[in-house]
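Quick review question:
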């Protein structure tokens, strides 16, 4: 597999690893989402000032309002964080080339 294919596989496997904890591996409950974020996105969570960050994320992403996230609802979180990280990367690279 290519590097990108491995990353995609890792994202899918990680989602299902946490989703299956309640017996339904197709959706993340709030508890599962919180555990995923604590284990897989600890730096992001540590920088959040709102103690209800996971609640807010679930509410924002849960399109069908079932208090769970399926994979399609989960992806915007990963895309948004990836875009923010890429912007930081670009800024860091720009600063490095100016020195």
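Suggested answer, residue by residue:
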């Amino acid at each position: 597999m290519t590097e990108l294919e491995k990353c995609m596989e890792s994202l899918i496997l990680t989602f299902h690893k946490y989703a299956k904890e309640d017996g339904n591996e197709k959706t993340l409950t709030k508890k599962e989402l919180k555990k995923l974020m604590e284990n897989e996105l600890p730096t992001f969570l540590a920088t959040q000032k709102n103690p209800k960050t996971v609640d807010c994320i679930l509410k924002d992403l849960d399109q069908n309002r079932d208090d769970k996230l399926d994979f399609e609802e989960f992806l915007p979180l990963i895309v948004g964080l990836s875009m923010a990280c890429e912007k930081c990367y670009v800024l860091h690279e720009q600063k490095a080339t100016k020195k």
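Why it works: Helices lie at 3-19, 30-40, 42-46, 53-61, 71-98. The chain has a mean pLDDT of 95.
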